[in-house]
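Exercise 4. Each item below gives a protein and its sequence. For each, produce the structure-token representation.

Item: Phosphorylase b kinase regulatory subunit (Brachionus plicatilis).
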Amino acid sequence: MSRRNSLSRAKVRVRRDSGTKLDYYNKIVNKTILAHQDPVTGLLAASNESDHSWVRDDVYSILAVWALALAYKKHADKDYGRAKAYELEQSVVKLMRGLLQAMILQIKKVERFKYTLDPRDSLHAKYSSKNCATVVGDLEWGHLQIDAVSLYLLCLAEMTASGLQIVYTLDEVLFIQNLIFYIENSYQIPDYGIWERGDKTNHGLPELNASSIGMAKAALQAMDELDLFGSRGSDASVIHVMSDTIYWCNTILTCMLPRESNSKETDAALLSIISYPGFALDDMELVNTTRHEILSKLQGRYGCCRFIRDGYKTAREDPSRLHYEPWELKIFENIECEWPLFWCYLVLDGLFYNNDDQVDAVSENLEKVLIKDAESVRLVPELYAVPAYKVEEEYKNPKSQDRVPLGKVPHMWGQSLYIISKLLRDNLIAPGELDPLNRRLAIQPKPDLVVQVAVLAENDDVQMKLAKDHNINVQTVNDVAPIQIYPAKVLAYIYSFLGKNERLGLTGRPETDIGYLSTSKLYTMNGQIFVFTAGFMDHKSFYLASDIDFTLDSFRTYLSFIERNWNNIPGRPTVVFVVTKEIYDAHEALNSQLISTIKKLYSGYINGARVQLGKLEDFIKTACLTSLTFIGTGEDGIESEKQVLKYLEEQNSTLTKASDLINRYKASLCDLEKSGTPNLLTTINLSQISLNNLNKNQNRSKKLGSIMGIVKRSRSIQYSECPRIIEKTKSALVNKNQEEANERQQSRSSIPNETYQKMNDDDLLNLLRENKSLHDEADILHYLYETKDLDWEIPSIHKNYFQGNKLRDLIINVYEKASLRKMWWLVRHSAGMLELTSDQLSKAVLTLIVRQKQISIGFPSMGNNSEISIKSPLPRDQIFSLIKQAWNKDISMMMITQELLIYLALFIGTEPQLFQGMIRLRLGLITQVMIGELERTLNCSVEDATDHLLNLSPFEMKTLLYMILSGKEMGATSIYSTRPSSSICDMDDNKKAEMERRHLRDELKHGYSVRNKPILLTAEENDNEDSNDSDLDKHGQWIRRRRLDGSLNRVSIGFYSKVWMALEKCQGIEIYGYILNQSLTREMTKEELKFALLVEDALNLIKEPEYRQLIVEACMLMIMLAQNEPRFYLNEIIVIDDIVIRANELFLQEQIKYNGDATLCCAIGKKCPSARGICEHFYDLAPSGRFGSMNYLFKALTQLLRIQENPDCIVC
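Answer:
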């Protein structure tokens, strides 16, 4: 009995102590935060002098009030505690609803922004605390701040999960759903960021900010499947988020970290997303890396500065203007203001990740910089600055001078986080109570994932053949009924009803493409189960899906992608692959890709992914099941349900008609082969036929066909100077090629073919009806395309002979014929006339941009077709507009460019190491390299190589691009070749050419090749290669490597930051007439991406890739000398071109001395047909060795800089 009484007294004592502490913190909260809350709107005024209320500051400030309410609720032992908890909760609800009201008043902006992503349509960042109205104009502030809206949504989700009722009506639910649409594209929206400045020069230039993307990702994860009405809600009050938007945010975020943006190496604001409140990362290693980067670069004696060269409130800042001049950023370095706020973040970080040492160390430092008021209440000041009279001393000895507090005291944002940290340290609340959604546990290791795969046959015929010929038993699409299977575009249509509300003027989710994660779920609607196939299987979306090999390759990549990125999603991913008759006919052989893929699925592993092959109905219990509850609910529920059901019926009807038409087509195709009836396909509505259905004989007889007529003359690519991989040294041949190029250039004009020019429209249409050749048909349609509009109406007398009434319909007809027959050059050309764009185009550009790659489209110096750069994410239409502008009327290259962007994005996602040292991807030069490789491999002319390139299937072109990026070489030597060993010397030229083409296709089909040594060799690498290596001794090997690296814009890792360091030791560096002045080091930091892009701009002025690469090698030597030579401090501009020219002269002198190969050309005054007057043999030198290019460049460098050369030094 006495023991029980003692325990009871102990509990009372603990509660009494807790109550005392809680009352103390309640006093602080009321004095520092709630005293500023408006009694009407609930918003917090920034100060007593201003009624401006910032969304971000308000949310952060109210977090302390919420945390204190949770603490009172937890330790309440009498009515006072419960009443105090409720009182504080209502203050939180008041503020959150006030912000909701302010944003709802701008609902038209939310609706517009979903489609435009225009900063002028963004929600305002601050409102009046008196009436929730706006306080500044749309263009008078950097309002586009994705992180602020995302923080609001994140805290709304956490507070709702803790039991607070913040959202009251379904109209408000739908508005919140549209706020999800507002932030879900954050990964491609440059905004002004957490500091409202955008680019750190504060010129009003928005940029992609990692802190904004991270907070958006956190909000999307928190809101997904959350019922805003809590336990009292229904299907109508649930928020839905597409998993693929979370994936894209995560991908872009991890690629950017620890960098904040292009202008900021890192930013202390990233602490908010690697820990509380964001918890946006699931990789602890990346969390630690980012934290270390912040502490090593930004931490001082009074806190952390926001970012390097932050001039805000420093003694050297001019308060009369908001912006900075680029040159003056250097004066802010080492005197940036330090914010105690970030130590509050670090204390919370240690508390949530159980790092006691960090908590103790940072808390001790934090307590020293807090300011006590008259009542001894500790207040967090906004920042600490270096006084003006101590600035010079701080420059000389950074972090040595005492600073003074400036700004607001207390800083409500920092004060709130400080109070939360104290509540946690005093054990008044637990981390889990502040994170009821358990987002902090995202870094915990995950169990191995199994991808569930169901392979279905299109019909009974395919099912029977798979079972009979290959002992593979699968179900048909009809066998899995009542489960319904539709393409991904159907799911996009269904989701377009999400968030729709006519009374509020909200149109729902924009009907954009659906990603792989979303199509790996099962969906329920009205008691039925739906499965959606991935977008790459939709053969009508873009012509890439018409290539069966590409589809199968995409399927394997798809499974690997799902296995890697299925994070924090309940249930297993479920993937359906439908084997159509066309796919089976193209791959019915025993060792085909299709059969091999299915057998690998049976083995349980494919492309590194663990899979389980089985029946679809067996996967339902373990699959990720999502309810489409928004269909049939809300004010338009019945109407939306009717529209969806009608759409599904139309899709079923279309599929049935397409199957019948395909059978008709194949039967008619047999009649065509027997009777030779012309223009058969004009009698069949091909727009309803799958583009991926062609008989097996045609599919197996693909050849590199020729391209003739006006279609060919519309190309520009063949007239540009393509790089020769194997140089033709005979001047006569060079002159002959030049003459032919001039003739082709003269023949190319905007004037149509004379034959068609003399004919009227009726004659052309009659000719189109009667022709028997797709080549001729393409020529006629191209002429009409050049002279008419796509919407040109066919004269009524001809309408009965064609499907469709417009020119567009005729071109679609040819496009579909070419797709069915796998005539890839015509597919691309007709797609270009129709201006088709891939759904993946904008995502491809985004994927490259966020990995700090820039894109150039077009050829250098092509007259009107000069290169156009893409430096930021853009919508699909704008990207295509730039592609069209760059290539002018070369519509085939418009399509090739789209393909290359898609392939490059695929590679950078799966093998990012291929892109090391590349900051700008110049698609025109990459295309030239591809043509050059075909020219070298097939030993043909540039024109023929161009034909071969356009005739490659998408899968073959993707493989060719991979070989170039990875340094593989096609058919370079007989030693490594996969070709038959039998001699072909006795064959005639045509048979030899045909064999070369077949072997080329075999290499591209299966990816056979030989991996060379690393293409980019620098003086820093040890050269252990055997000097007798036949591969390296082969003529043209090193000039080829330099051309490849120059075209791919490859440089060594750390090249740009080293150029910055060298620039500090001289007045400037001149590259091809472009001067990089030393002043750039005052405008930008060495790790800043903007500086790297400036260096790249200088290098990109050089049109010849091999000469560009020599310039890079000379820069590398100059950098090495600057790093290791203490005398390298020059009061002059270093001209890199002079180093290369002098090195070439030294090389020629030694060639004469030793009677080298160059004595046949440049050494005796007979110039080579090579770039910039540099000897061809100098381009072909290996970098290292006694006679290596680095040795000559080093000698030239020391001579020009007048630095005594060490006779024992040979750069190796």
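Check: DSSP finds 45 helices and 25 strands in the chain.
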